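idk why but the lab printer keeps eating my pages so im just putting this in chat instead. protein + zinc ion:
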Amino acid sequence: MYKEELGHLTLSLFAGAVIAVIFGNLWVIAWAVLSGFLIDGDHLFDYIRYKGLNGLSLKEFFGGSYFDQSGKVILPLHGFEYCLIFAVVAYIFTDWRPAMLALALSLFFHLVFDTLTNHPIWPTYSILFRAFNRFDHHKFDFKSRQANKLVSK
Ligand SMILES: [Zn+2]
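predcted complex ->
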């Protein structure tokens, strides 16, 4: 988990730097860090939904076993669709273009990185795909589930 977060932070800073150079605006780096790094804060939504507010544990939170135990992967901010929305907003509202493009590019990097490192079936990081599958963890075939299958064989 920590290595993945370092990867997310690095990619966020890279995405922010690219947009900062293009638009000459260093503030966009903060937007890139927001969508490419801090977005993983939405794991709290799934964790608290599973556990409630009592007995929360950082170890359990970072372990991620609550996805298996709850059987759901909601992650409300993880969705390629948001990249498209940010890009459309960037196209329409030129004053917001640098910030929106930083959000879009950094989130896109985050979701591609998550797809490559978690090895789910490919559309899993579409919020619509997960919603159509009722956020059922068993439909997405993450690597932790694949490892469990190998152990149980
Ligand atoms: Zn993520």
